[in-house]
Structures are given as C-alpha cells and as structure tokens.
Amino acid sequence: MPLYRIEYDTRLTAGQQDELADAITTLHSERFLTARLFVNVEFVDVSNATRYIAGQRRGGNHIRGNVRTGPARTQKDWDDLCHDIEAAWDRIVRPGLAKMKRNDKDVASTELRSVIIIAGLIAGSEAGFTLPQAGSDAQWMKENWAAFNKKADEGDQDFIDMVKEIKQRGILEKINGTNGVHA
Predict the structure, then answer these.
(1) What is the enclosing helix (H) or strand (E) of 116?
(2) 4, 56, 94, 121: least buried by Cβ within 10 Å?
(3) CATH number of the domain at 3-129, please?
(4) Residue 96 falls in which region: left (phi positive, over 0), alpha (psi -120 to 50) or beta
C-alpha cells in the first residue's frame, strides 16, 4: 500500500536500513491499522545524484511516502507520522550527533533534510488483493480473512506472518468492537 522511498547520500549500514525499514513499517501500520505486509520501504543511494536546493547544488537525505488518504486520516496523523519518522532517523542514523552543532560537517551529512508525504495512491493491487480505501483496512482484512488464511495454509510465509500479526494485534476485533477473528 504505502511506499516509503529513502533517498540517502550518507552511508547507511545494512543494519541501519533494516532498523529504519522496521521503524517506518511499525509507525505506519500501527497508526493506520494496516498489516505490515503491505507497507513497502525502499532505499536509494543518491550520493552520485545531482540535486539542487534553493538553486544550490546540495546533497541530502530525504524520505518520501506515497500513501492513501481519506477522511479517517487527519492532518495531525500525517504531521505526527513525519515527526516520528524524523525521530526514528535521528535515533538510528545519528546517535550521539543530535547534540552537535548543525553546521558541523558530520552532522550535516547524516541530517534528514525532509520527510514528504504524497497523497497519490488512487488504486492498486498487492499480493493479489485490490487495495482498500484509506481507513477501511480492518474491514478489508475481515472481508479477505478466509483468503489470507488460505494463502497461509498453502505455506505462503508472508501470509503466515500477516495472519499471526492480525491476530496478535487484535485488528479484526477493532471493527465495531466485535471479534472478527476465529482460530
């Protein structure tokens, strides 16, 4: 569903990429009641790209999210998500550097210059399922519960993990306060 593209010109280790992907996946899936399976994160090394900001050649680290929007997702939700993503970046990429001066070369190279959320996902299909409208993920999961379980029963590890996650988080139980998950 959402696609978060991390464009970086600082060096990121595989471990930092893993942590950032997990942090963004967790932040999005918990804030918007989305299964982790449908949160996509990609990393693009742009250290050799030419980029301009204010007409000046500059490098920088940026995160762009292409997401579904709807009335259930408020401006505050998006602003908080941006703040939380920035905090995750600082915690994972910049430990010990946050207190240094902004004009310090090492700090500038690890600084997250922007988090931009773009509301551009109109429709799509992922893992064989038509994507739901924003804010209706739990109902969509309930409607597709049998198909998710069938894929899990057939050995699809993504769906084994997703079925387990949905049960653990009690996502289907959050629909009108009813218990929609049956073992």
Answers:
(1) strand 112-119
(2) 56
(3) 3.30.429.10
(4) left
The answer to whether 30 touches 16, Cβ cutoff 8 Å, is no
Q: Spell out the domain ranges in the chain.
A: 3-129, 136-183
**18 phi/psi in degrees, rounded to 5:** -60, -45
Cα(59)–Cα(13) distance, rounded to whole angstroms? 18
Instruction: Give the pairing type, strands 52-53 and 40-45.
Output: unpaired
Both structure tokens of 30? 């918990």
Q: What is the side-by-side strand order in the sheet with 40-45?
A: 40-45, 3-8, 61-67, 112-119
- The pTM of this model reads 0.81
Helix (H, G, I), strand (E, B) or coil at 142: helix
**pLDDT for 23-58, tens place per residue?**
999 999 999 888 999 999 999 999 888 888 888 888
**Dihedral of the CA atoms 85, 40, 159, 124 (nearest 10)?**
130
